[in-house]
């Protein structure tokens, strides 16, 4: 489905993710998880439609800034094994 092994950070300047009104509290766990899901959903739908995946880069940058690397590795492994609990 998605080649999670080929994911590399995009080139260019990285900045702190902007404020997201869906997650107003200090704890950003849900924000991290939602942006991970949004990235994969964006990739899936844009690839299926034959469009550029460049707009998905925003979600990639946000979840890479907020999520611990161990979580991302674990989620990618679960996606690869078909055991990921999120809806992608």
Automatic annotation (TrEMBL):
It is a peripheral membrane protein. PROSITE patterns: CHCH. Component of the cytochrome c oxidase, the last enzyme in the mitochondrial electron transport chain which drives oxidative phosphorylation. It comes from Gorilla gorilla gorilla. Its main location: mitochondrion. The keyword Disulfide bond applies. This is Cytochrome c oxidase subunit. Transmembrane segments: none annotated. Disulfide bonds join 32-67, 42-56. Pfam families: COX6B (PF02297). Keywords: Disulfide bond, Membrane, Mitochondrion, Mitochondrion inner membrane. SUPFAM superfamilies: Cytochrome c oxidase subunit h.
């Amino acid at each position: 489905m998605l080649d999670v092994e080929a994911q590399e950070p995009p080139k260019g300047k990285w900045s702190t993710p902007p404020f997201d009104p869906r997650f107003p509290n200090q704890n950003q766990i849900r924000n991290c998880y939602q942006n991970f899901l949004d990235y994969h959903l964006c990739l899936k739908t844009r690839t299926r439609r034959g469009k550029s995946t460049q707009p998905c880069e925003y979600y990639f940058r946000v979840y890479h800034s907020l999520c611990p690397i161990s979580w991302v590795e674990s989620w990618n492994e679960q996606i690869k094994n078909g055991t990921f609990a999120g809806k992608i």
